[in-house]
Amino acid sequence: MLQVLAERRRFGEKTMEVARQLLIDKVAPKRVAAAAGINSQRVYAIRKTVLAAIDEEFGASSARDGPMDVFGSPMGVVAGHALAWRKAEICFRALGGDDVELLAREFGVSVDQLSEWIGHLRSNAWKLFV
Q1: pTM of this prediction?
Q2: In the CATH hierarchy, which top-level class contains the domain 1-58?
Q3: Does the first or last residue of the chain, that is N or C, have fewer Cβ atoms within 10 Å of its Cβ?
């Protein structure tokens, strides 16, 4: 989602890296500022701008329309996409031959839950190509 937003809004690479660290990796703003070599105020401004852009691009914060219905806020949308991406990554590792039991243990999920995710991915994978 952040990549789509970057293309539509033409945010710079550094801006999107700061946004990714804040919104997806959940790194503390002061740590992001130190790592990026910018002040904390700039980090907060980037977060505010990116969240506003997510809200505009992917739906209003009200319960009337768009993906906000499901997640309730721009942060919820980002978190939802991050979770879906992580689940897909784990499933692809399992489909690629990694041991399901070891993966389940590594990521703190039950084997049944992981098997359910894999089944869901298999039955809905065709939608990824439409």
Answers
A1: 0.48
A2: mainly alpha
A3: C
